[in-house]
Amino acid sequence: MKVLEVLALMTPRRIAYVACDPAALARDTAYLADLGYALVGIRAFDLFPMTHHVECVATFAPVLEER
């Protein structure tokens, strides 16, 4: 079982995801969407000036079903 699957089973109100690889963040964003979580915020941090590296913090929340 993947870490994201375990997190989803715990049904947290928010997941904070820290990523240094945009491709992995995109992959895991799609995976979390399949598990019922939506991307509600994202922020990039230039922690390594003068390089191409950017750290991102993404926030996910459960998708609430409309009744």
From TrEMBL:
One of its GO terms (molecular function) is rRNA (uridine-C5-)-methyltransferase activity. Keywords: Methyltransferase, S-adenosyl-L-methionine, Transferase. Its EC number is 2.1.1.189, 2.1.1.190. It is an enzyme of class 2 (transferase). One of its GO terms (biological process) is rRNA base methylation. This is 23S rRNA (Uracil-C(5))-methyltransferase RlmCD. The lineage of its organism: unclassified sequences, metagenomes, ecological metagenomes.
